Amino acid sequence: MAERYPLCWPDGWKRCTARVRADFGKTETSYQDGRQMYNGKRKLSISDAISRLAEQLARMDVKEETVIISTNLRTKHPGHSARRPG
Predict the structure, then answer these.
(1) In the chain, how many domains are there?
(2) Residue 1 lies in a domain
């Protein structure tokens, strides 16, 4: 049975031996004199990432409660990490 913690990988799926960090982020913008300004990119929070995943699942008509998000971080409550990954 899959668990949220510790990280649970599906049976039969191979894991990569060399990990490459993904370049996901959240665009920061502000407004100055009525113009939108690009302020760069910041790291996604666990909450942002889960929200994005939930949106994609909804687009595929997958009910969020049927999905287990497994992590190597302890969780406060289902689906949300207790700390940000380092």
Answers:
(1) 1
(2) no
Query: Which residue do the tokens 């909450």 mark?
Result: 47
The number of angstroms, rounded, from the C-alpha of 26 to the middle of its chain's C-alpha atoms is: 12
**Is 72 inside any structural domain?**
yes
Domain that holds residue 65: 26-81
pTM above 0.70, yes or no: no
Give the tens place of pLDDT for each residue, 14-73: 877 787 877 788 888 888 899 998 888 888 888 888 888 889 999 999 988 888 888 777
Residues 6+ apart with CB under 8 A from 39: 28, 29, 30
- d(Cα 58, Cα 64) in Å, to the nearest integer? 7
Q: How many residues can be counted in the chain?
A: 86
Render 18-82 in DSSP notation, one character per residue: S-------EEEEEEETTEEEEEEEEPPPHHHHHHHHHHHHHHTT--GGG-----SS-EEETTEES
